[in-house]
TrEMBL record:
Domain of life: Bacteria
Cellular component per GO, a single term: periplasmic space
Catalysis: reaction(s): Hydrolysis of terminal, non-reducing beta-D-glucosyl residues with release of beta-D-glucose
EC number in record: 3.2.1.21
Organism placement in taxonomy: Bacteria, Pseudomonadati, Bacteroidota, Flavobacteriia, Flavobacteriales
Alphabetical list of SMART domains matching this protein: Fn3_like
Name of the protein in question: Periplasmic beta-glucosidase
Length: 775
């Protein structure tokens, strides 16, 4: 599905009126004159560089403010003076960064400025929902706005390079890093990837408020065996190209300036040393011309992978096409020796240095090394009310209403509300994982947000009700990176009793349960994906009060909710909403915002179903659809004896306070031919009693192919605002480009034949029209 190309003004919200939506790669704005001046400048610089200085450009230490791996760099200042550092990451603050840059441009021989990176993953100090939540908006303009604001804040504070977007497709909810990506679908994730790249990079990288993006983790990091972080990945090439590669490629097509290699192996060779991946696929096939950085100590880790010692691993990485070595100093300490021994060539080192210098040139650092980072500017921009307002509104758009029996939601602004749960008064958990720049403790808690939104109209009572987890040991593991959960050691029974007492004085219960922030994210794999039992017990105890329960779910991953979803009247999945968490949740609970988020990843009934994803293939023995519907077992068919085939909540699912109906889809031709454009239209009506937005989804199934094809694939989506009683026609355009796939010989083509064109409110509820598309 082709989306409108060009530059448009967002019309959705007055908040964003003045901001541009860019959807062209930076390079397309660069003139031939610019390119040739740049080349001449860099040629001249390289001619003056010693071998050591070239290798120095490839070295990326961390400042030590935040560390996530094994190695620690030391004596960074000295090395900067010697020209042995190309960039530094995770150092925060305009003045601090300026001081380091000063060393580089005043004390090093060639005065080459450094780049300053950071994990600006879902916002800077103003923190947006976790990326999985951002994807749940299905609104690429909003995603782009979030990246744009993040870039502005980071740049004002001295950062000019972010390690984002993370676009690893994953069907593995055990893997904690699903929180950092866009979920299971290549199409949705590709749209989000592009939006983020445009948001960070804008149309000119040299502007003071745009920063270099880095798509990661290339590649396949989201498919670790057993869902255990860093684990082995093994998959067929057709699956790679059709299902896992598209979002990386979309980021490359959007002009992303850098790529980060993943920790895992790809086809038996760690990505960091994988020449096929970096050179053949990324550079040659996709035409990527930026630089490639390893992940944290990625080269050193090849030693453990069994690829040889540090010298051998470093040579392997350079030969594979890696340009920059994050933290491990393998390049810095071994490349000279490898050059002498003929294991690498000077041309390769020069080429890598050139790519780093090109990025610095594009960022405008040779014109003004202090272009980024201005304490006065940062004071105005960072965590400004304007940015926080945007975060609040985007967070509200990310929430997914999973259930709403008896229209318990929206709540009325009257009476008494009991707000219960282990994190209802906890600020540090609200930004979620990978929020390194956030100002800890500045996020709005659920209780505070509710109080602000309801004012004096509603009496708010609160109780903790339970800890996140009964076991203190586990709870500490979950809070390992410093996001404390304020453990209450009075004992489970005391907490329960207090909560029941509070609840019995209220008209309605808002119960917030689920995960704490660091139960997802890096190194946060779980072998169970349920809500900890102590919180389920709390839900059960509150149920006995007979009061209506609106459950707010905090989570960084799809959870198996079979044991809880019957109990509350409503479930609102809030993910981790960011710094404005409490306000955004309150906006949705009290109906200021009608929820319109949709799941970017399937929620299973139980862990045994994993991997469960909507765009699966058929087996030769699929279960008959009626049996699937009724959850009936059939012997010698593809199903479980003890579990249904359907998920609890399918991909694309999400309710609204209003209701929508869909007409049958119409097509402009039933027998399109060749390069025809096929229009697919559907009338969507708001039949409920609130205005609301609906994400209309288009899926296609290729019925017969030279290779087996998925039962459906997302090919388009559009979020439409519908006033109550209103009907709008939504039209998608399909071309043969949308039908292409990689066959077993990796030819990318479409094949003539029958296709089911499906439109609906989620991946499981669609209306279908069959067409025949001939060559
Ligand atoms: C993560 C990356 C991150 C890097 C730098 C690594 O541990 O895998 O996603 O960008 O650290 O902080």
């Amino acid at each position: 599905m082709k989306k409108f190309i060009g530059i448009a003004l967002l019309s959705l919200s007055p908040l964003f009126m003045a901001q541009q939506i860019i959807n062209q790669p930076v390079q397309t704005f660069q003139t031939a004159q610019y390119q040739s001046t740049k080349k001449a400048f860099i040629d001249n610089l390289i001619a003056q560089m010693t071998l050591q200085e070239k290798i120095g450009q490839l070295n990326l230490p961390t400042s030590g403010d935040f560390t996530t791996g094994q190695a620690q760099s030391s004596n960074i200042g000295k090395k900067i003076e010697q020209g042995l550092v190309g960039g530094l990451f995770n150092i925060k603050g305009a003045d601090k960064i300026r001081a380091v840059q000063k060393v580089a441009v005043e004390k090093s021989r060639l005065k080459i400025p450094m780049i300053f990176g950071m994990d600006v993953i879902h916002g800077y100090e103003t923190t947006f929902p976790i990326p999985l939540g951002l994807a749940a908006t299905w609104d690429t303009d909003l995603v782009q706005q979030s990246a744009q604001i993040a870039a502005r804040e980071a740049a004002a504070d001295g950062i000019n390079w972010t390690f984002s977007p993370m676009v690893d497709i994953s069907r593995e909810p055990r893997w904690g890093r699903v929180s950092e990506g866009s979920g299971e679908d290549p199409f949705l994730a590709s749209e989000v990837a592009k939006a983020m790249v445009y948001g960070y990079q804008g149309k000119d990288l040299a502007l003071k408020n745009t920063i270099l993006a880095c798509v990661k983790h290339f590649a396949l990091y989201g498919a670790p065996e057993g869902g255990m972080d860093y684990n082995t990945v093994d998959m067929s090439h057709t699956r790679m190209f059709n299902e896992y590669f598209p979002p990386y490629k979309a980021a490359v097509d959007a002009g992303v300036g850098s790529v980060m290699a993943s920790f895992n192996e790809v086809d038996g060779i760690p990505a960091t040393g994988n020449k096929w991946l970096m050179d053949e696929v990324l550079r040659k096939k996709w035409g990527f011309d930026g630089f490639i950085v390893t992940d944290y100590t990625g080269i050193n880790e090849m030693v453990e992978h069994g690829m040889g010692d540090l010298q051998q691993s470093s040579a392997l990485a350079l030969n594979a096409g890696i340009d920059m070595d994050m933290v491990g100093e393998g390049f810095l300490t071994t490349l000279e020796k490898s050059l002498k021994e003929g294991k690498v060539s000077e041309a390769q080192i020069t080429q890598a240095a050139r790519r780093i210098l090109e990025a610095k040139y594009d960022l405008g650092l040779f014109q003004d090394p202090y272009r980024y980072g201005n304490a006065a500017e940062a004071k105005k921009e960072v965590f400004s009310q304007k940015n926080r307002d945007a975060a609040r509104s985007i967070a509200a758009q990310s929430m997914v209403l999973l259930k709403n029996d008896n229209q318990v939601l929206p709540l009325k602004k009257q009476g008494t509300v009991a707000v219960i749960g282990p994190l209802v008064n906890n600020s540090v958990n609200m930004p979620g994982t990978w929020s390194v720049a956030t100002k800890h403790g500045s996020a709005v808690t659920l209780v505070d947000g509710l109080k602000q939104v309801v004012g004096k109209d509603v009496k708010i009572l609160t109780a903790k009700g339970s800890n996140v987890e009964d076991s203190e040991k586990l709870e500490n593991i979950y809070a390992a990176h410093g996001k404390v959960v304020d453990r209450d050691n009075r004992g489970k029974e005391v907490l329960l009793k207090e909560a029941v007492e509070v609840a019995s004085k209220a008209d309605v219960i808002v119960l917030a349960i689920g995960e704490s922030a660091e139960m997802s994210g890096e190194s946060s794999s779980r072998a169970e994906i349920t809500i900890p039992q102590t919180q389920v017990d709390l839900l059960e105890a509150l149920k006995k009060t007979g009061k209506p329960i609106a459950m707010v779910l905090f989570t960084g991953r799809p959870l198996a909710l079979s044991n809880v979803h019957e109990t509350p009247d409503a479930i609102l999945n809030a993910w981790f909403p960011g710094t404005e968490a409490g306000l955004a949740i309150a906006d949705v609970l009290f109906g200021k915002v009608n929820p319109s988020g949709k799941l970017p990843m399937t929620f299973p009934r139980s862990l045994g179903q994993v991997p469960i994803y909507y765009n699966h293939k058929n087996t030769g023995r699929p279960l008959n659809p009626q049996k699937v519907e009724k959850c009936e077992y059939e012997r010698f068919r593809a199903n479980y004896m003890d579990e249904c085939n359907t998920p609890l909540y399918p991909f694309g699912y999400g309710l609204s306070y209003t209701s929508f109906t869909y007409s049958e889809p119409r097509v402009s031709k039933e027998r399109p031919k060749g390069n025809d454009k096929l229009q697919v239209s559907v009338d969507v009506s708001n039949t409920g009693s609130y205005d609301g937005a609906e994400v209309v989804q288009l899926y296609v199934r290729d019925l017969v192919g030279s290779n087996t094809r998925p039962v459906k694939e997302l090919k388009g989506f559009e979020k439409v605002l519908l006033k109550k009683g209103e009907t709008k026609t939504v039209t998608f355009t399909l071309t043969p480009e949308d039908l292409k796939f990689y066959d077993h010989k990796l030819n990318y083509e479409w094949e003539e034949g029958e296709f089911d064109i499906m439109v609906g409110t989620n991946s499981a509820e669609v209306k279908s029209k069959r067409i025949y598309w001939s060559k």
